């Protein structure tokens, strides 16, 4: 693990470098006080050497922790076994998300199948009932003769039989629609696992970035500040998931209509 | 009335197709992005185009612009039905000559209202 991240050189000075520098400094002052400038410069050179050694040691330490962090992220270019495992975890996540798409698509199609079946059934009941209604009204008003009544009686029997069958079909379609919603549970579980993986990867990446930053700083490498490569304002973004927090998006159809009418639509 | 529905998700195409059928429009054709839609539009005499924005290949806004640049298609009424909800996008679509803009998720009533409004305006002009 990258437990040494961002830490300053150990204050207890285990390598003894600080003690060495102090000793050199003291000896340099001593030499200067004695008027021995040449010797003092030699000590200064020694000091420079000690500085370089400290720098290299620190750089080495950070490089090691960077390497560890990268290994934690399992993206070694050498494709060690661990890495393949990680890559397969990512491809596993892609597979899982693909599964979510296919499950939601199936559910949507199943639901639409049922709705398409149910609509004509409901329409048929409605139309037959609408057809019978005027004749039934005549019965209520006593404006029907026996022959008409017998015909209506038969029609009514057929209608009732038909309605029993049709409403059974409708109930069946409705419960199938209900069952088709089971995708929510299944896809929810899958998505949760993928979110977990993304979070793990993010925290490993943050470790790498932190350590790399310290190495760069110490080595005097200057990287230009991250530029905000802003996307064109009209690039497709997909559904907006945080509408209430954004001022550049419309909150719904009413907003769209207002905006368009302000443009002369 | 011949209508082309362009969306990369087949379920969305199916929903729109069903809603259109309820409104009495039964002559519909489907395409899954701008690239496949454009040749279909050019080859057939379509009266109306309903398109999504975000699609692989060729997006809806590119399709709209291509339609407006084509002498044979430039007067075709276009309704955008999309999840893209940025104000700049709506303005861009308006400037590109869209006839209506519906944001997803939408209701049957909204779709009906926008389609009717487009035809009213065309008949009125």
Structural features, described:
The complex is a heterodimer of chains A (265) and B (125). Helices cover 74% and strands 0% of the residues of chain A. Chain A has 265 residues and is mainly alpha-helical. Chain B is an alpha/beta fold and 125 residues long. Chain B has five helices and five strands, in the order E-H-E-H-E-H-E-H-E-H. Chain B has a five-stranded parallel sheet, with helices on both faces. The model of chain B has no long low-confidence stretch (mean pLDDT 93). Chain A binds chain B through residues 105, 108-109, 112, 115-116, 233-234, 236-240, 243, 248-250, 252-253, 256, 259-260, 263, 265, and chain B through 9-11, 14-15, 18, 53-54, 59, 61, 83-92, 94, 101-104, 106, 110.
Entry summary:
By secondary structure, chain A is mainly alpha-helical.
Total domain count of chain B:
1
- The low-pLDDT segments of chain B are none
Question: Treating each run of at least 4 consecutive H or I residues as one helix, how many helices of chain B?
Answer: 5
What is the number of domains of chain A? 2
Rg of chain B, rounded, reads: 13 Å
Category by helix and strand content of chain B = alpha/beta
Shape of chain B: globular
- Roughly how much helix do the residues of chain B carry, as a percent range? 40-55%
The helix/strand series of chain A, from N terminus to C terminus, equals: HHHHHH
Biggest β-sheet description of chain A: none
Distance between the termini of chain B: 18 Å
Number of strands of chain A: 0
Which quaternary structure do these chains form?
heterodimer
Structural class of chain A: mainly alpha
């Amino acid at each position: 693990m990258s437990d040494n991240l961002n830490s300053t050189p150990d204050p207890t000075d285990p390598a003894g470098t600080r003690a060495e520098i102090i000793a050199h400094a003291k000896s340099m002052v001593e030499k200067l006080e004695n008027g021995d400038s040449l010797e003092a410069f030699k000590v200064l050179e020694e000091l420079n050497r000690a500085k370089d050694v400290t720098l290299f040691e620190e750089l080495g330490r950070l490089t090691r922790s960077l390497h560890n962090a990268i290994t934690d992220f399992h993206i070694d270019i050498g494709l060690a076994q661990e890495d393949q495992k990680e890559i397969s975890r990512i491809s596993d996540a892609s597979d899982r998300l693909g599964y979510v798409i296919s499950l939601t698509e199936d559910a949507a199609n199943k639901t639409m199948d049922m709705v398409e079946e149910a609509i004509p059934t409901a329409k048929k009941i409605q139309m037959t009932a609408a057809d019978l209604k005027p004749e039934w009204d005549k019965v209520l008003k006593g404006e029907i003769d026996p022959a008409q009544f017998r015909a209506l009686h038969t029609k009514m029997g057929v209608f009732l039989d038909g309605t029993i069958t049709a409403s059974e079909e409708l109930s069946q379609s409705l419960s199938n629609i209900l069952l088709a919603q089971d995708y929510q549970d299944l896809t929810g579980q899958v998505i949760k696992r993928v979110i977990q993986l993304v979070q793990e990867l993010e925290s490993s990446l943050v470790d790498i970035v932190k350590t790399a930053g310290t190495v760069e700083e110490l080595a005097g490498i200057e990287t230009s500040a991250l530029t905000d490569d802003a996307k064109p304002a009209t690039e497709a973004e997909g559904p907006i998931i945080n509408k209430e927090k954004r001022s550049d998006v419309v909150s719904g159809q009413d907003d769209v209509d207002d905006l368009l009418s302000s443009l002369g639509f | 009335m011949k209508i082309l529905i362009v969306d990369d998700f087949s379920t969305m195409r199916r929903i729109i197709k069903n809603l259109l059928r309820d409104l009495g429009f039964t002559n519909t054709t489907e395409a899954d992005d701008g690239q496949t839609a454009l040749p279909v539009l050019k080859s057939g005499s379509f009266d109306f185009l309903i398109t999504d924005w975000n699609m692989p290949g060729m997006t809806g806004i590119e399709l709209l612009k291509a339609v407006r640049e084509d002498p044979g298609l430039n007067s075709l009424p276009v309704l955008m039905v999309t999840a893209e909800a940025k104000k700049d996008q709506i303005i861009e679509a308006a400037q590109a000559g869209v006839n209506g803009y519906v944001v997803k998720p939408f209701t049957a009533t909204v779709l009906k209202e926008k389609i009717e409004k487009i035809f009213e305006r065309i008949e009125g002009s």
